[in-house]
Amino acid sequence: MRSLLYAVGPMLFDSLGVIVFAVLLGLGVDLVIATIAGTVTAAGVVGYELARGRKVAALQWISLASVLFTAAATLFTGDPRFVMAKPTIVYLIVGSVMLRKGWLDRYILPEQLALVGDVMDRFGMIWAALMFASAGLNLVVALFFTAWWPLFIGIFPLASKFGLFAVHIAAVHFIGQARLRRRAGGELQPLAAE
């Protein structure tokens, strides 16, 4: 339970701007208002980290930059296609960042990293694949099923991420427990040899 709470906090915080935007759209709030609310929230997340003297995660900067760019384009042109295309662009950028080894390390207790760090790296690739798949799916829905896009963006991004998050946490927990049992039984070599 401690591991789950440790991971959930940063995940929700890092995604807060997107969550606000998606929930508002899912509730039928005007596109411009949802965009402004998402932008203010994303800026607030970065501002909060800076005010506390913490390092702002790369994904937070990317999220803020993309929200600001698409919000400005939407507000200046009044064209909602900028907002509809934004998730595809964001997912491609985020997916590319997620290809970097070790990006998930901040979401696990430091004492568990030595035990399941390799599993976290594998899940990093799975998360990247989800982002790339989400980018393609968003583009298809935005271009060919435009009327359904607000419902799609209000449900799929959060549902798919929380679904993968549940699988990720469960798999890491079970693998970590199995490794601890084997290690206690003397079946595993020291960490340096793994």
From TrEMBL:
GO cellular-component term (any): plasma membrane
Listed transmembrane segments: 5-25, 31-51, 58-76, 88-104, 125-145, 151-175
Keyword hit for Transmembrane: yes
Residues spanning the signal sequence: none
Keywords per UniProt: Cell membrane, Membrane, Transmembrane, Transmembrane helix
Highest taxon of the lineage: Bacteria
Protein name: Intracellular septation protein
